[in-house]
Amino acid sequence: YSLFSLSGCPRATFAGKKGKLSGDEILNTKFKTSDVLENDEEIKQLNKEISELNESNSEMEAAMVKLQSQISTMEKNLKNIEEENKIIEEQNEALFLELSGLSQALIQSLANIRLPHMEPISEQNFDAYVNTLTDMYTNQDCYQNPENKDLLESIKQAVKGIQV
């Protein structure tokens, strides 16, 4: 045996045996062609699913932005409505105070004038008294006799000084 020949070297023989693999072993340790094709199809399918998810996420984000915009608009509208309601409440309160003042002035002015078949005007019968007055003035032709004319004139004079 030559010193330069590997066949005589025990280490080389062992390394050679160790390095030699059968065809089945090579197929088992390396990817088979079918495995590569399957993996390629799986990757394509995964990429497709990722693309679909991204598209779905984009649509959801757009919907969320639109929804947030709608919520913001609704909140602004609600705030405006609340402010308008506050103004209306203040106006109603002012009108109620004015009406209260007018009703007190009317009660004082008409305290001594008795309508037929009615008690003198008071807070308790105020509405009925005003309804009767309204009816008398709306249907003045029914109150043409001298007694009723005098009553209507007395009422006119009594309420003349009330500022509306």
UniProtKB/TrEMBL annotation:
A GO term for molecular function: RNA polymerase II cis-regulatory region sequence-specific DNA binding
Primary localisation category: nucleus
Coiled-coil region(s): 36-98
One Gene Ontology term, aspect cellular component: nucleus
Keyword Transmembrane helix carried by entry: no
Keywords: Coiled coil, Nucleus
Subcellular localization, as worded in the UniProt entry: Nucleus
Protein known as: MYT1 factor
Originating gene: Myt1_0
